[in-house]
Amino acid sequence: MNFLNQVGAILWKDILTEYRTKDVLTSMLLFGLLVILMFHFAFEPDSLETEKYGPGLLWMTFVFAGILGMNRAFAGERENDSLQGLMLAPVDWGAIFLGKMLANFLFMLITETIILLSFTLFFNFDLLPRLGWMVMITLLGTLGFASIGTILAAISMNTRMSDVMLPLMLLPVALPAVIGAVQATAAAFTDPPGEALTFWVRFLVVFNIIFVTLPLLLFEYVLEE
Amino acid sequence: MRSHNSLAILTFVLMLAALYAIFIYAPTERTMGPIGEVQRIFYFHVSANWTTFLATFFVFLYSILFLMKGTREMDIRAAAAAELGTVFGAAGLISGTIWAKPVWGIWWTWDARLTSFFLLWLILIGYLMLRRVVDSPGQRAKLSAVFGILAAVDVPIVYMANRWWRTQHPAPVIAGGSGSGLDGQMALTLSITLVAFTVLYFYLWRMRCELERTGDTVEALQRQLQTQGLEVR
Amino acid sequence: MRYLFAAYTIIWVVLFAYVFSISRRQHKFHEEIARLEQLLENRRRP
Questions:
Q1: pLDDT above 90 covers what percent of chain C?
Q2: Which of A68, A223, B80, B224 is deepest in the core (most CB within 10 A)?
Q3: Is C4 near chain B, with CB under 8 Å?
Q4: Contact B221, C35 (CB under 8 A)
C-alpha cells in the first residue's frame, strides 16, 4: 500500500467510526453551542463589543471544542488497544499521523462551520462579505491546531491524567495559531482590512509549515515502544 | 571531586563579585529620583531571565540528543535543565513584579516579553508535569523529549507573534531591557552578574543531574534485592 | 529600600530552597543506598 493510500485508509477508518457513533461530533457541537450561550451570559456583548470581542470569542470556542475532540482522537484506540494492531501493520508512522491529523482536522472543520454559522446568527456577524477570508483563516488556524493537537494527544494518551495533560500542553504550543487566527479574523471584519489581514494570514502559513512538518517528523518517537 | 570543588568555588567567587558590583560599584540610577536604588533589582532579574532561556536551550538540545542517542544521561540532563529553568524562571518573574511595582506602579503588564516569558515558564512546568504522569521511564524520556522539542521551537514564535500583535495593540512597554543604552558601569555590572548566574546554572545543573543518577543507583539496588527474593520495603 | 530587599531576598529564598531540597534528597538516597547495600551484604553471608 503506498503512502497516500495508507493515509486515506486511516482517515477513512476514523471517519467511518465517527459516522457510526457520531460521539465526537455531537459532543463537540453541543459543547460549542453551550460555550456560545455562556459567553452571552458572561459578557452580554452589545454590537460594538461583539465587533471587538467577537473574533476572540469565536476562536476560544473553536479551541475549547477542538480540545474536546482531540481528547477523543486516541481515546478510542486506547480503549480498544487497537493502536498495537495499527503499529504491527506495515504502515508508515507518517501515514498514521497524517491520517489521524486529517481526521481531527475534518471533525474540527465541521464543528467550526456550524459554530461560525451559530455565531453569525446569535451575535449578528456580517459574515457574507468576508466569507472567503474566513474560510481561509479557519482552514489555516485549524490545520496547525489539529497537527499539534494530534501529536500531543498521542503523547498524553500514554499518561495517567491524559484528559488534563492534553490542554495543558496544547494551549501554550498552539498559542501562536490562536493569536494569528484571532488577529486575522478581527482584521477581516474591519473595513478596510488593511495589511494586518495579509500579515497574519502569512504568519499562519509559516506557522503551519513548521508545525505540520515537525510533529510529522517526531511522531515515530511517540509511538515506538 | 576536585572539579566539583573548583566549580563550587568559581560560582561562589563570581556571585560575590556580582554582589559587590551590584551594590557598591554600580552607580545609582539617577532618572528615577529617590527610589533609584530599586533599579539594582534589574541585574539579578535580567540574569535570572537569561538563565531561564539558557536552561530552555539545554532542554531543547538534550531532548534532540536523547532522541538521537537514546541514553539515560541525555534524558537526565534535559529534565534537570527544565527543573532549573522553572526555578530561575520563578525567580525572574517574582523579581520582575517586585521591580515593576515601585517603578511603574503596576505589578504586571502584558507586553510581549513578559507574556512570552510567563508562557515559557508555564511550558516548563508542563514539561515537568508530563514527566510526573508517565510511569514507564523509557516512555517518560521519549515523550518529554518530543514535547521539549515542540515547546522550544514554539517559544520564539510565541515571542514574535506577541511582538507583532503588540505593535498593533500598544501597551505600556517595560523599558530598560538589556541594551537600552546602559551606562558603562551598569553594563559591566550586568555582564558580571550574567556570568555569575551562568556559572551558578552549571553548578546547580550538575548537582541536579548527580541527584538523578543517585536515584537511579537506588532503584538499581532495589531491583537487585528483588531479584534475590528479598522484600524491599 | 524595601522593594530592593524583598526582591533579593525572594531570589535568595527560591534558590536556597531549591538547593536545600536537592541536598536533602541526595542525603536520603545515600542513606537508602547504605541500607540496601547492607541488606545485600546480609544476603550474601547469612
A1: 11
A2: B80
A3: yes
A4: no
